[in-house]
Design goal:
Blueprint lengths: L12 H18 L3 H11 L3 H8 L11 H11 L8 H4 L7 H21 L2 H22 L11 H11 L21 H5 L6 H5 L2 H23 L9 H13 L1 H4 L10
Helix pairs in contact: 1-6, 6-8, 7-8, 7-12, 8-12
């Protein structure tokens, strides 16, 4: 009998590389003094008000701010520069070890499955698209916010949304077998992608989505109202990343059939 054992950790190289980059960058952040960390945030974090001020220099005139908030606004957006690269670079910064470790764990859990379906280049482009979609959603809800947005949560959420297009299909580990043999891990990752319509009609997939959505909403409210966690949670960015991963999945996937378009 052949040895069919699998290694305990079997994560695609692109995921290992991203996790390493996130961890190294946060380690370097943690070694900086407070002023250096603030300057890093000013240069690389996404600040929604920058976009608003670029279109309208008086966009913040109607915002009620105390002296501390005015000082913060001057620091983050006082130069009036758009800094378009921050729609990507924000994802490489994190607020605490808990923040970066949780994102890395979720990325290994959901990102690994998606990365196995895409080649490295496709996966990295996919991550970039979900990162941008996340902060654009946050901007639409909070266009005049001066607090910086950081973290790879939109990418993680995008991978969760993408996984819904194949993880709940019949024969997949999370799907209803309907009398079918549950496929091996590698086989399940290469199932034809499901159409948006079929996923929306899949009870298991929609239960997963509703639980994920409610948890994000509750965590976002709790972090804002009660001060739980390391800071306010940009849950709108999570939703933006999730929707981009779910809706745009077929543009990146190569394991689809004519019946799975949409």
């Amino acid at each position: 009998m052949s040895d069919q054992r699998q290694p305990i950790f079997n994560v695609p190289n692109v995921i290992v590389a991203l996790v390493a980059v996130f961890m190294v960058i946060f380690y370097l952040q943690s070694q900086m003094d407070e002023m250096a960390q603030m300057d890093l945030l000013r240069r690389l974090a996404f600040v929604p008000a920058r976009i608003s001020l670029w279109f309208d220099p008086n966009a913040l005139a109607s915002v009620d701010m105390d002296a501390d908030m005015q000082s913060l606004a001057g620091f983050f957006v006082g130069d009036g520069a758009l800094m378009p690269w921050t729609v990507l670079t924000y994802a490489f910064l994190h607020g605490s070890w808990t923040h970066v470790l949780l994102n890395c764990l979720w990325l290994m859990s959901f990102g690994a499955a998606v990365a196995r379906r895409f080649d490295m280049v496709r996966f990295l482009v996919f991550c970039a698209v979900t990162a941008v979609a996340g902060v654009l959603m946050h901007f639409l809800v909070h266009p005049k916010t001066i607090e910086p947005v950081i973290g790879a949560s939109a990418i993680v959420s995008g991978c969760m949304g993408a996984s819904m297009r194949f993880a709940f299909s019949p024969g997949a580990p999370l799907g209803d077998s309907n009398g079918l043999r549950v496929l091996s891990r590698d086989g399940a990752y290469h199932l034809p992608s499901a159409s948006i319509k079929s996923v929306l009609g899949n009870t298991r997939a929609m239960t997963f989505f509703m639980v994920w959505f409610v948890l994000n909403l509750l965590i976002g409210i709790a972090s804002t109202v009660f001060g739980f966690g390391d800071g306010p949670i940009a849950w709108e960015a999570h939703i933006g990343g999730f929707l981009a991963g779910f809706l745009l999945f077929a543009l990146f996937d190569t394991h689809h059939s004519s019946a799975s378009k949409g």
